[in-house]
Amino acid sequence: MTQGHPPAAGWPPPGTAHPHPGGPAGPPWAPPPPPAPKSRRGLWIGLAAGALALAVCAGTLVGVGLGLRGDDEEGAAPKAAAAANGVTVTDAELAALLDRHSKALAAKDLDGYLAAFDPARKDLVAGQTQLFRNLAKLPLSVARYETVEQQGRASDAFGQGVTFQLDVSFVHQFDGFDLAPVTEWYRWTIVRTGRDAPIRVTAVTGAPAAAGGSSKTVYHPGPWDKWRDIHVERTPHTLLITDAGRAAAAKRLAPAAEAAVVHDLAVWRAGGLPGPVPKGFVLALAKGKDELTSLYRVGREKATEAGFSLGMVAAERTDGKFTIGGTRVVVDTDEDYFTRSGGGNDAGMVFRHEVAHSLMTPRTDLAEVDAFDRLDEWVVEGFAEYVAFHGRPLGASERTAAARRLVADGWNGRLPDNGGWNAPDRVSFHYWLGHAAMNHLAEKYGEAKLFRFVDAVYAGTPTDRAARDVLGVSLDEFQAGWASYVRAQAR
Prior knowledge:
Layout: E1 2-4, E2 45-47, H1 51-61, H2 76-85, E3 87-88, H3 91-106, H4 110-114, H5 122-135, E4 140-151, E5 155-156, E6 162-174, E7 182-192, E8 200-206, H6 223-226, E9 230-234, E10 238-243, H7 247-271, E11 281-286, H8 289-293, E12 307-313, E13 324-332, H9 347-360, H10 377-388, H11 400-408, H12 427-445, H13 447-458, H14 463-471, H15 475-489
Protein name: Peptidase MA superfamily
Region (Disordered): 1-38
Transmembrane segments: 43-68
């Protein structure tokens, strides 16, 4: 499983998640390595660590809240000429357009919502009508549209009309699920054909993300964009969204998702970390890898994982800092974890693993995490496995049998590093080693210190320093004790 944060035009690309063991994993700012043979043991969690975090911040600095930024080459005189003789679209007009659009959504006024769009574009109007109806099904406490960035000239001094792109932020918050409003970026094509003509939107796509990231878009498309008609299944702690044609699957899986969140919240509370915790989580049920690759992101590489948890950067700063406002979990229900019954690694285990990521992700310090590095995978994935299997022995993991053979075959006794984490024949073993590291840490130092250690790493503290600060030992000393523990577990 994976965890990540998506990008915007100028921010980071949507986060790369930790792939299905055997699938590609890598920092969100770089293409993942070629996919390896698929392992049925792997889970994909996702934590948008390292570069993704700062990338998001960097993008946000020139994003929401800064207003329009077009081409200023024309200067004051040409703008004055355009105002007198030509065609122009002012910032005030665009702000008013988005304000009317937001108010129409809040008032459930379909005609008002569609007023921005060119009525001659029948497909566009039909798509926006369905989007309006999908959004009406969601428990949103915040839902508004804001300007992000303008691409192209909004004035023409010769009266020939103007066409330009406007990147628009859909600022929204799921009531009872998100800690703060988050955002999704669209790109609208704006047209005014003459001086007295109305402003019309003639096309809507996802706003492009910064080049080189793992996604081509910024948190787009949401399930409400992707599916013509959505089904929303709610439990006390989850909100499951899927295509309306798969409502039965949502009803079938909702109890497992609810039980997973209740389990993880109980483990979290026992860990004793301070600060706000989400009361519930938003999950999307994808069918197949094509859908998994194109929910809340448009992946540059086809997904191979079973699911992911994506951190959503808050639309506004808190105390001057960018934070994670919420998370989104997406799982592929075609994976046999969701079709088979029973066993330790069933749908519930996948949900527990992903929700564990989602609990920790909001604690990421986006100002401290190094933009050119990733959090240590053995900490990130090990913690999610630890929470998913909490209360059960290490042997309950179906990775254990194969791991014991690898230990007996001459394992080097070292914590896996990020560079070799996704080696095709070792990724499942590495997940198990991370799981074993968390078990050993909890048994030797106590569960409270386990949570404090993982929290410190998410906050950007180097792992070796976190070991000294929290555990009172060097990372080498911890590794030596853990290696002995692993060998004992493999006997």
